[in-house]
Amino acid sequence: MHAWPASEVPALPGKGRDLRIHDTATGGRITLDPGPVARIYVCGITPYDATHMGHAATYNAFDLVQRVWLDTKRLVHYVQNVTDVDDPLLERAVRDGQDWTELAERETALFREDMTALRMLPPKHYIGAVEAIPGIVPLVERLRDAGAAYELDGDVYFSVETDPHFGGVSHLDAEAMRLLSAERGGDPERPGKKNPLDPMLWMAAREGEPSWDGASLGPGRPGWHIECVAIALDHLGMGFDVQGGGSDLAFPHHEMGASHAQVLTGEHPFAQAYVHAGMVALDGEKMSKSRGNLVFVSKLRHDGVDPAAIRLALLSHHYRSDWEWTDQVLADAVERLGRWRSAVSRPDGLPAEALVEEVREALADDLDAPAALAAVDRWAERQNAEGGTDEGAPGLVSRTVDALLGVAL
After folding, report:
1. In sequence order, what DSSP letters do the residues of 204-254 get, joined into one string?
2. Which of 121, 172, 246, 324 is the 20 to 30 A CA-CA neighbour of 56?
C-alpha cells in the first residue's frame, strides 16, 4: 500500500531541541533520545468513512513529533497501518450494499488526499492489515505454541496473564479494563475464555465474511492488536521510540499490543514512550463514526476552506487536551492565517532569529503548539504594526512556520 506525497520541509539555521513528551506508561514527561534514526509507529484508520477532525488532530500531533525530530537533524522512520479489514468496515459495507474492498480503497484514497492537503508528512511504510496477514499468522502460531494463546471454538485468544508487564501502559484496574474492552471491540462476556480481558488473535472464518489461509490456525482473519504488532516488529523492531494514537487507544489497543510483543520477544518495553492525543468533540460529545457527529476534512476543503486554516485550528489546542470543534475555532484560524500571511508578505521585517528559538522550545516542551502559535502571533502583530528592516526576516518566519508547524504561508 502506498502513502501520500511528502511536502518539502525547509532547513532552518541551527539545530532543534530534543523532545520532552508525556508518556502514558510512566504518567509523566520523559526526554526522548533516539539515535540517528528516530522510530515511530502511529495507529492508522479503519477506512469505512472519511477523515474527521478527530483523526486530523491525532495525525497532526505525530506530524509535529516528526518535525521536531527532523529539526534535530535526525532521520525519521515512521510507520502507519490501515486496518483495511475489521468488523466496522464489513458492517458498513453490508449496510450500504457495497463491496468491502471497494469501500476500504475509496476511503483510504480520500484519507491520503486529506493528509496531502494538510501537509502531514507521510510514513515511510504504510501497511494494510490484509497485506500484513502473511506476517501475522506465524506470530499467532508462536504465541499458541509457547502456551501464551489458546483456542476457543476455532478462534485463538491471547492470554494476558502470560505477560508480567500487562497493565503497564494504561494502569487501569480490572473492572475499568473490562468495561473498556466491551466498549472498544473486545468480548469480555464470551464464555470459555481464561480471562475476560483476553483479546482475539485470530478469528476463525465466518460465513459471508472474508477469510485468509491461516496455515495451522485454519482459515480466518487477524485480530486488531496483533496486526499492529506484526507491522511494528517487522519495520521498527522492539523498543522503538514512540507508539502513538488517540487517547482511546491506550486501552485496549496499545496495552494488548505491548503484551503481545513482549511475550513474543521476551523483551520490554515494546515502545519507549506511549503518546496519546486528546479527543475532539462536536455538540458536547466526542466525535465518532458511531455517533455520526463528524466534521470531515474533505467537506471543509470542498467548501473552500484553506487547509492551512484547518491545520491552524488543530494547532490552537494542545495535542493532549480534549476540545470541541466550533465555527468560532475555524473562524479564529482563518483570521490568524490572514494576519500571518500579511506579516510575511512585506519585503523586509523585524528580526526573527529569536522567534525560531521560541517555536523550537515550545514544541520541544511536550509539543506545546499553542505556545508556538502565540510566539508567531506576537511577531506578526509587531510586524504588521511597525515593520522592520531585516530583509531576510519574513522568509525566515515563513520557513519556520512551514518546517515546524506544517503551515504554508
Report:
1. EP-TTS--B--GGG-SEEE-HHHHHHHHHHHHT-TTEEEEEEEGGGIIIII
2. 172
How far apart CA 168 and CA 208 sit, in angstroms, is 38
DSSP state of 268: S
**Cβ count within 10 A of residue 318:** 16
What is the C-alpha separation between 359 and 365, in angstroms, rounded?
Answer: 10
Q: What amino acid is encoded at 271 in this protein? A: A
Place of cell 485468544: 157
For the stretch 260-300, pLDDT in tens is 999 999 999 999 999 999 999 997 887 776 677 789 999 99
Separation between Cα atoms, residue 210 and residue 199, nearest integer Å: 20
Strands 240-246 and 271-277: parallel
DSSP class of residue 118?
A: T
Which residue stretches of the chain have pLDDT < 70? 289-290
Residue 191 grid coordinates: 464464555
Tell me the backbone φ, ψ of residue 327, rounded to 5 degrees: -60, -35
- What are the cell numbers at 76? 525519521
Tell me if 356 sits within 8 A of 398, measured CB to CB. Answer: no
pTM for the full predicted model: 0.96
Give yes or no for a contact between 271 and 18, defined as CB atoms under 8 angstroms apart. Answer: no
Other beta carbons within 10 angstroms of residue 152's beta carbon come to 15
Distance CA 311, CA 337 (A): 10
CB-based burial, 369-393: b 16+ in 10 Å, e otherwise: bebbbebbeebbeebeeeebeeeeb
Alpha helices in 316-368 (DSSP H): 327-344, 353-364
Strand 240-246 to 37-42 pairing: parallel
Longest dimension (CA), the chain: 76
Residues 168/250, Cβ–Cβ less than 8 Å: no
Q: Which domains does the chain have, with CATH numbers?
A: 26-277 (3.40.50.620), 297-405 (1.20.120.640)
